Design the sequence.
């Protein structure tokens, strides 16, 4: 059934339970959570409200799979083949998964499709990588052979957010499974339908029982239980800084490692000599993609003062044409995820307005969108004071803050002037300046004359400063998702 029909007929996808040992089992809590479609505000599905018992059952299944199950016995090449098979199945089911992702998150269909393609690409990349992770031999004392090998942590826990559920499924499970870990995922209650469906496809791909377990539920129940469980060997978390702190404290209590990906306030640094025609789509898309609900959103446009009016005028013209609509309208952006997020975005805009910050451009919401949906018109604010919340805090919505800078040194100070350090873009035709500025920015990824190119599955990704720590994506993720063992062998 396509999403339009589903929204019109009001049919509700029933809760299947908790996914453990390749099967759906009912949660002993017998509670369910209503899943609301952001496009309409109507209930479109119910999911199980997993609790601490479910987390423990999922953990035990993963532990069995890792210690004595079929999963733990597979060779690296066999694991890689399973990942590759899952990648193909995701491609084969791309239409169905695209519709599900769009229904659950409200994103335009073209964005949902791009996310499914990325999800397949994660399993393709890590399927190919699984048997290419080598250790080293180390020159040591006479009569010894010393070497290193990368081994799985054991059982890893993944807590993912609602903004890109399909991509996050691939981004976290791809490297964890490639390295041979058994996994337990807690997806976000606001958007977990695609991860739950992907788990079924993993069974079809041939993953043995216990390798992938998924426990939907509330963060404060299932999520907190996962982080507090003493059995896990490693945690991956993406979400808010507040919950990130709790995850890190829980990991510390259990003396295990974790990766935290906590968002950003990423700058696009634009010099007067920018090739504006080439830059324009990226400057706008970086904040509008996924209605601004992207950890790496380019939410600060820093513009050289001498060219401010020209550059900002051109961006504003494009910005004013942006339109939000339903997934099937497939416009520039969809609704935000829920009523709370809509209020959050509106609060930022209201406060900016009260602070006297000028709105330079405003997009619109399409006329025929359903009344109950969580639509927000994109807004672009100019001359945002550097100490204003709009210049420092993550809005997680389609709101662009424009700030002028004087010169290179000022641009760098401004780019580095928030607590975050996730991604940055530098736009100039002066190659030396691009290198000088780009290499002074404290961010996990810096793009020159580009921004967030191509999904970046191959490119290590993660934060500096308070954007978090650890690296996902690329080969780097395989290091975080494994432990290094040194072997020393004495011989005659
Ligand atoms: P969040 O609460 O941090 O949610 C992220 C994940 O953590 C979800 O799966 C959530 O579950 C879970 N969680 C919540 N409380 C938990 C706890 N006590 N222990 C363990 N896990 C827990 O984020 P949010 O409330 O959805 O969004 C709030 C803000 O965070 C956004 O406005 C945005 O600024 C930021 N955010 C950033 C990213 C990013 O990509 N960096 C992603 C999402 C949100 P439930 O949602 O099911 O309760
Ligand atoms: Mg939430």
Sequence:
């Amino acid at each position: 059934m396509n999403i339009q029909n589903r929204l019109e007929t009001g049919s509700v996808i029933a809760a299947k339970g908790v996914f453990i040992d390749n099967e759906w089992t009912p949660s002993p809590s017998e509670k369910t959570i209503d899943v609301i479609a952001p496009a309409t505000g109507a209930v479109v599905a119910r999911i199980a409200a997993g609790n601490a018992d479910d987390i423990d059952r999922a953990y035990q299944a993963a532990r069995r799979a890792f210690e004595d199950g079929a999963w733990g016995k597979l060779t690296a090449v066999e694991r890689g083949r399973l990942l590759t098979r899952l990648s193909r199945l995701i491609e084969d089911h791309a239409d169905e998964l695209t519709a599900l992702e769009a229904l659950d998150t409200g994103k335009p269909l073209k964005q949902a499709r791009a996310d499914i393609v990325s999800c397949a690409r994660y399993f393709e990349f890590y399927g190919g990588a699984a048997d290419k992770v080598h250790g080293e031999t180390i020159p040591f004392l006479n009569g010894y052979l010393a070497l290193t090998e990368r081994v799985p942590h054991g059982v890893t826990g993944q807590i993912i957010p609602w903004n890109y559920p399909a991509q996050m499924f691939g981004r976290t499970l791809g490297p964890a499974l490639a390295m041979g870990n058994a996994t337990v995922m807690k997806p976000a209650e606001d958007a977990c339908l695609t991860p739950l469906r992907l788990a079924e496809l993993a069974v079809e791909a041939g993953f043995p029982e216990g390798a992938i377990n998924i426990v939907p539920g509330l963060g404060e129940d299932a999520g907190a239980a996962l982080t507090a469980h003493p059995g896990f060997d490693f945690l991956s978390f993406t979400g808010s800084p507040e919950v990130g702190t709790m995850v890190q404290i829980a990991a510390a209590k259990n003396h295990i490692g974790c990766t935290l990906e906590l968002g950003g306030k990423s700058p696009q640094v634009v010099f007067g000599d920018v090739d504006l025609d080439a830059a324009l789509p990226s400057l706008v898309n970086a904040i509008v993609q996924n209605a601004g609900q992207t950890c790496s959103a380019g939410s600060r446009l820093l513009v050289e003062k001498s060219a401010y009016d020209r550059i900002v005028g051109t961006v504003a013209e494009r910005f004013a044409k942006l339109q939000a609509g339903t997934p099937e309208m497939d416009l520039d952006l969809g609704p935000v995820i829920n009523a709370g997020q809509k209020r959050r975005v509106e609060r930022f805009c209201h406060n900016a307005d009260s602070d006297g910050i000028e709105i330079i451009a405003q997009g619109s919401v399409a006329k025929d969108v359903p009344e109950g949906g969580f639509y927000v018109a994109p807004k672009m604010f100019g001359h945002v004071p550097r100490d204003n919340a709009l210049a420092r805090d993550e809005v997680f919505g389609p709101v662009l803050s424009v700030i002028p800078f004087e010169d290179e040194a000022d641009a760098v100070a401004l780019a580095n002037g928030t607590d975050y350090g996730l991604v940055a873009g530098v736009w100039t035709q002066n190659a030396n300046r691009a290198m000088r500025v780009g290499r002074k920015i404290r961010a996990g990824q810096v793009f020159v004359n580009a921004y967030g190119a191509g999904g970046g599955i191959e490119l290590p990704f993660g934060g500096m400063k308070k954007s978090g720590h650890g690296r996902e994506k690329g080969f780097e993720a395989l290091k975080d998702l494994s432990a290094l063992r040194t072997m020393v062998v004495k011989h005659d």
About this structure: The pocket of NAP (ligand 1) is lined by residues 159-163, 186, 188-190, 218-220, 223-224, 227, 238-240, 243, 246-247, 261-263, 295, 341, 344, 394, 396 (CB under 6 Å). The two ends are 70 Å apart (CA to CA).
